Amino acid sequence: MTKPFLKWVGGKQQLLNQYDQLFPKTFDSYFEPFIGGGAVFFHLQQKGITGNIRLSDSNEELINAYRVVRGHIDELIAMLKFHQENHSKGYYYRIRELDRLPIKLNHIERAARTLYLNKTCYNGLYRVNSKGQFNSPMGSYKNPNIANESVLRQASEALQDAFLMSGDFSGVLNWAMRGDFVYFDPPYDPISDTANYTGYTANGFDDKDQFRLWVLFRDLTNRGCYCMLSNADTELVRDTYKHFRIETVQARRAVNSKAGKRGPINEVVILNYDN
Ligand SMILES: C[S@@+](CC[C@H](N)C(=O)[O-])C[C@H]1O[C@@H](n2cnc3c(N)ncnc32)[C@H](O)[C@@H]1O
Questions:
Q1: Is residue 6 part of a domain?
Q2: Residues 130 and 196 in one domain
Q3: Which of 4, 53, 87, 219 pairs with 176 at a CA distance of 20 to 30 A?
Q4: Of the residues 150, 175, 193, which one is the last residue of a structural domain?
C-alpha cells in the first residue's frame, strides 16, 4: 500500500474509507492544491489515475521534499540513514537551527532535514514562525522510523508522473479543465479562535483565504470540473457552500493537548457533483 511519507496535521488517511463513497467515479486529470502529506493522492493513485497529476502546496519545503522523493530517492535514503544513526536531542536542535544560519543546503539536504524533523518533532507538527523558521520542539518517540525505505520507495514510484509546484491554491485555475477532478483540503475554518491549527506556513490561512477558495470552487464548478472540499463543520462553511452538496464525515481530532478532547468530531465534505 502506498502511504504518505510524512506525518501531517490534518492528514486524511483515517477518512479514506468514508471518502471512497464520495470520489467521482471517473475523471480526467487530478489536482490537489493543498497536498500536505498526500493521503488522498496516494490512495487514488493506487486505484489508478489515468490523466495528468498536478500536486501543489504553498509550503516550499514540502514541495521540495516531494520533488526529491520523486527524483533522488537513493541519495535521500542515504542521508536519512545518516540522520537515523546520529539522532539525539542535541543533534535534533543542531539540524533544526540550520534554517537560521547563513549556510545554504542543497535541495536533497533540505529534503532530508525536513523529513528528519518531521519524524522526530513533537506530534509531527510542521510549524514555522513568522520568518518561516521551523520551531517545533523535539518529540519523545523511542525509535522514530526516520528512514522508512519501503514507504519512501513506493511514494517515489507513485510520484513519477506527477507535476509538483509550490504556490497558492489559486494556481489551479490556470490548468483545470472540464472533466478534471480537484480535491481541496485547506487549513480548516477554526471551530473556535484557538482550536484550530493553521501554522503550516508563515502566512496562515484566514477568512479572506476561505472566501477566495469559495470563489475558486464556484469558478471551477462553472467550468465543469469535479470539486471536492474538506473543511470543519462550522456555520460559516455550511452557509458559504449552502448551494452545494454537503456530506458529514466523522474524524478523530488530531491536534489537542487535552486527551479528553480527542473524541470523534464531525467534518464536512462539499461536493459539486452526484456520484
Ligand atoms: C489540511 S493540510 C492538508 C492535509 C493533506 N490533505 C493530508 O492528507 O496530509 C493543509 C495544507 O495547506 C497548505 N496551505 C496553506 N495555505 C495555502 C495556500 N494559500 N495555498 C496552497 N496551500 C496552502 C499547508 O501548507 C498544508 O499543507
A1: no
A2: no
A3: 4
A4: 150
Q: Is the pTM of this model over 0.70?
A: yes
Residue 206 DSSP label: -
* Separation of alpha carbons 15 and 45, rounded Å: 16
- Return the amino acid letter for 208: K
For residue 85, being part of any structural domain is answered with yes
pLDDT digits (tens, 9 = 90+) for 184-235: 999 998 886 555 555 555 567 888 999 999 999 999 999 999 999 999 999 9
Q: Smallest Cα–Cα separation from 68: which of 9, 109, 33, 101?
A: 109
Which residues sit with their C-beta closer than 6 Å to ligand 1? 8, 10-12, 33-34, 36-37, 39-40, 57-59, 168-169, 185-187, 200-201, 205, 209
Mutate to test the pocket of ligand 1, among 172, 201, 212 (most ligand atoms within 8 A of CB): 201
Minimum CA distance residue for ligand 1 atom 20: 168
Alpha-carbon 273 to chain mean position = 24
Q: Give the residue, 104 or 271, on which the prediction is more confident.
A: 271
Q: How far is the CA of 127 from the centre of ligand 1 (A)?
A: 12
Which DSSP letter does residue 26 get? -
The minimum-distance atom of ligand 1 relative to the CA of 39 is 8
Distance between Cα 185 and ligand 1 center (Å): 6
Full domain range(s) for residue 135: 67-150
In b/e form, how buried is each residue of 20-33, taking b as 16+ CB within 10 angstroms?
eebbbeebbbbbbb
Q: Is 20 helix (H, G, I), strand (E, B) or coil?
A: coil
